Amino acid sequence: MKENILIIGGGIAGLEAAAMLLRLGHSPIIIEKSDRLGGHVASWHKLFPDMTPAKDVVDRLTAEASGANIFLNTEISFVNKLTDSYNIMLSNGISIITKVILVTMGFSLFDAAKKEEYGYGVYDHVVTNRDLEQWFNGKDDPRIDNSAMNAVGFVHCVGSRDEKAKNSQCSKVCCITAVKQAIEVKQKFPDASVYCFYMDLRMFGKKFEDFYISAQRDYGIRFIRGRVSEVSENIEGRVVVKAEDTLSGKPLKVTLDLLVLMAGMVCGDSCTKVAGMIPLPVDSDGFLKSKDNIFDVMESPKEGIFYAGACTGPKTVPETLAEARAAALDIHLYINGLE
Questions:
Q1: Which parts of the chain fold into alpha helices (H)?
Q2: Which CATH number fits domain 110-265: 3.40.50.2300, 3.30.470.20, 3.50.50.60, 2.115.10.20?
Q3: Second-level CATH architecture of 4-107+267-335
Q4: Pairing assessment for the beta strands 250-256 and 126-128 based on DSSP bridges
Q5: CA 26 to CA 277: how far, in whole Å?
Q6: Which of 284, 229, 274 is nearest to 254 (CA)?
Q7: What is the arrangement of strands in the sheet containing 69-71, beginning at the earlier edge strand?
Q8: Measured distance CA(94)–CA(97) in Å, rounded
Q9: Is pLDDT above 70 for 304?
Q10: Whole-angstrom Cα distance, residue 101 to residue 149?
């Protein structure tokens, strides 16, 4: 008899885990709160470092997981621990009993409006990385003017590595996302001046350093080490940014047509809400706490509950997919008493 395995979250981690579990002979059930699968990646345009269309990735994962039982527009209403299983009540009124839960609820982006000094929601031409990505993907945005894009700036680490924002951790993918988006801006507006304001560039992944070098060499993107000290708006409605170039030791002032804030990853409210129902421990960084951070990253401290993807911390797409496959195998071994 096939085991029902409840996967909470229909992003790329949930889809990849479901596909692997299907191949292993199980019956995964995906619960997704939104009206579509793919999570954040579904609204992205291209993925670093190969500029792979995000739609291609989501379409492939969705096709491979098509044998799963999928509930869209559905949330977890209640969790009751039974003797050797869990009774899960869904918002659509359906009750599911399962011995295994895989949490793949991913992340939320930091609310850039909380960093008032950058003017998000106040100045007309300040957007976030998500806003820009959706614009690349064809969504209209009145803050982004196609006809007048002569200078664009990116601010790294918005809501990350920031004690005041209550998030001291690095969000891992902001630097490389800024590089990718800066290149896309230059591809659309070859004559525009593009600036990236950063604290430290963390190009840790495969081909990331090459991508960064290409941004400078092939596209002329200027990387400025130093925090932005002031953002304002001039009489023409353009964004004025003041910063210090700490490498040259000189102050810098640039006037931009668009300022992009690289909002970092945080654990989402829906994820912490479900964690509170089970309950699952939350780590000091606000993400869900794994059994340990070496051998059992995909296991929770609770019997029968597993993790995959960014619910435990910032992850790249390849890392998320690898964790999903590993979690599926862990679940298979657990069900068969081989763990």
A1: 12-23, 54-64, 129-136, 174-188, 208-217, 269-277, 317-335
A2: 3.50.50.60
A3: 3-Layer(bba) Sandwich (3.50)
A4: unpaired
A5: 25
A6: 229
A7: 69-71, 27-31, 4-8, 100-103, 305-307
A8: 10
A9: yes
A10: 48
**Rounded to 5 degrees, what angle do the CA atoms 235, 236, 238 make?**
105
Q: Would you state the structure tokens that stand for residue 335, as one six-digit string? A: 């069900």
18 neighbors 112 (Cβ within 8 angstroms): no
Are 129 and 263 contacting, i.e. CB atoms less than 8 angstroms apart? yes
Q: What's the pLDDT tens digit per position in 142-188?
A: 999 887 789 999 999 999 998 888 888 999 999 999 999 999 999 99
Cα 287 to Cα 272: distance, rounded to the nearest angstrom:
8
Please tell me the distance from the alpha carbon of residue 17 to that of residue 327, in angstroms, as a whole number.
7
Topology agreement, domain 4-107+267-335 and domain 110-265: yes
Contact by Cβ (8 Å): 152, 298: no
30 strand-pairing partners: 7, 70
| 211's tokens | 């991508």
Percent of the chain residues past pLDDT 70, beyond the cut: 99
DSSP 39-58: GGGGG-SEETTTTEEHHHHH
Cα separation, 237 vs 36, whole angstroms: 37
| Mean pLDDT on 118-126 | 96
The structural domains of the chain, with segments of one domain joined by +, span 4-107+267-335, 110-265
Report the predicted TM-score, pTM, of the whole model to 2 decimal places.
0.95
Q: What is the DSSP string of 77-124?
A: EEEEE-SSSEEEEETTS-EEEESEEEE----EE--GGGSGGG-TTTST
Q: 157, 262 in Cβ contact below 8 A?
A: yes
CA distance 320 to 318: 5
